[in-house]
Each structure stands twice: as C-alpha cells, then as structure tokens.
Amino acid sequence: MRIVPSTSLLVMLLAGCIGETPEAIARAQTAAARDTAPLEIRFLDVGQGDAILIRSGDKVALVDAGSSDNVVQKLRVAGVDHIDLAVASHNHSDHIGGMDAVLDSLPVRTYLDNGYPATTRIQTRVLQRVEAKNITYLQPTARTIGLGSATLRVLPPARLPGDAEEQNNRSVGLIVEQGTFRALLTGDSETQAINGWLEANMIPDVDVLKAAHHGSRNGVTRAWLARTRPEVVIISLGGDNSYGHPHVAALRLYCAGGRRVFRTDWHGDVVVSVEPSGRYQVRATRTTPPRATPRSPRRASGRARTAAGTPPGCGVRP
Ligand SMILES: [Zn+2]
After folding, report:
1. Domain with 49 in it: what CATH number?
2. Is residue 26 part of a domain?
3. Residue at 18 is within a domain
4. How far does residue 131's CA lie from ligand 1's centre (Å)?
5. How many A from CA of 95 to the centre of ligand 1?
6. How many whole angstroms from 45 Cα to the centroid of ligand 1?
7. What is the tens place of the pLDDT at every residue in 149-200?
8. What spacing in Å lies between the alpha carbon of 43 and ligand 1's midpoint?
9. Does 107 sit behind a cis peptide bond, omega within 30 degrees of 0 on the bond before it?
10. Are 255 and 317 in contact (CB under 8 A)?
11. How many angstroms does the Cα of residue 56 sit away from the middle of ligand 1?
12. pTM for this prediction
C-alpha cells in the first residue's frame, strides 16, 4: 500500500520544522498553500473595454479597469477585498475609466502603467490617487513579478519614434505563467507593437491569448498567431459597439485551425482556471445566446458587425 503523508506532515517535513513553534508551522503551511494555489484569470464583462482579474491564492492583480466605476461592483461580487498589483495596459478611458474608482474603493499595493502620459483627465485623476495613497509605482521594464504561485512577466511597451499619440502601440504586455501554462495579454497593441515584440523575440507560444484591441483587425497578424500558437482566444468587447469590433477579418484569423474563441459580449465573464501543473479549463458565465440586436441603418451598411457578421462556425456558441 502506498502511504500518502498528510498535508500537515508534508509541510513539517518540507519545512524541516520538527520542534518548530506553531507559528513557524502555520507560516510554512501558508507558504506551501500559496505555492500550490490554483490560478484564475477572469476576463470581466465590462462592455467595450478591458478588465482582467488574476488571482493566485490570496494574491490579486487587476489588469485594466474598464470604462466606468461599474468595475468596482464586479470586483466586490467576485470577492475581491484588496489588489496587490494594478496594471494599466495603456491610458485610454476604456482601460482606466474605472481605475480611479478602484483605487478609491480598495487597498492597492502597487501600480504599473506604460509610462507614457495620455494627458487626459482620467489619467491625471488616476496618477494623483497613486501618489496620494502612497501606492508603489512600477516602471514597465522587463521585470518578473510573483503573484502567489503564478508569475507575471512584463513586456515593455514598444519604443516608437516621435511624440505622436500612440497609446495603443505603447500598451504594456503581460505573460501570465503557472506550471506549463501561459496566457498573453497585450492591451490594445496594434501591428507596430506586436511586430516589435516579435522582432525582439520576446513572445513565447501560449495557451490563452487575449485578442489585442478588442478583436480589431489591426491587433492580429498571421505571424502573431504563428508565434503565439494559442489554443484559446478571448475577446473583451461590448456588444453592438460603434467600432465594429470584432472585425470579421480578425475573427477569421483567430478561428482558423479550430481555435476556441470566447467573447465577453456573448459569454459574460470568461474564466480560465489553471491547476498548479498548468492544466487549464475555460468556462463562460453566460450560457444563453445573446439577444439579437436590431441593426441601425449604418450597421445595415455592413460597417459594424454583430453576431450576424461572424464567420460560420467561428466562436464557441453560448
Ligand atoms: Zn481599448
């Protein structure tokens, strides 16, 4: 018969703590639990925008905060009572519109953004709070940040010539790793940014890819997918948005080869659960099909696409 030691005994053996104090044993147990905690990446349905909650054990990161204060309620419903790391992929309002409310509502330990000012009122409000609340500001350098048993690798934003307003292409990227699992989040990066990361050989193959720029055609190329080789693509966007996201050309690329494509406008929150080994599964929180949206005259022209504009067989149907 195979003898399986109990968790407590295992912790004691691992920690070499025979004869240690109860406090030391408790600390070792906490550390062991953190090292084996499952990872959850929750793509929150915040309409047209991004807000991605990453949790490992009791450690919490939030990547972007949607366009409005509503994100705070979504975080509370998810049971979030603090944030260890808040990240702004870039400083457009559909990514940091709710960040000031988050900083006002929850204790936040560290804040990382792309380091490029957008000279917008919302970014000013956010950075004022970072300073006033003594939140540690992190530069978007090529650093590695531990989050429980997961690791976040920062992809510094592209260095672009000139002083043009290029927030999208200056998005900071993140690779989320646990065991053999990897997910890639790159904000609203467009072709210039993703080509720069490819040329710098900074992009690994991944299991889950967040579609850049809400499924825009300028956020994906064949070369990007050939390098990242995702099994699952998740698009964060609002239904019937005025940008026509997701673009049909992008959907065709994402869906090629049988990749599973989830969309927050169809599926609500999309949750990726990762075991310590790296095995993962993806589930949608909404399982009923989206209501058909009456098309406005402009949409009838074909500029904007809804579910009706989706290539046949593309996307996991709710
Ligand atoms: Zn955006």
Report:
1. 3.60.15.10
2. no
3. no
4. 25
5. 6
6. 13
7. 999 999 999 777 665 568 999 999 999 999 999 999 999 999 999 999 999 9
8. 14
9. no
10. no
11. 26
12. 0.85
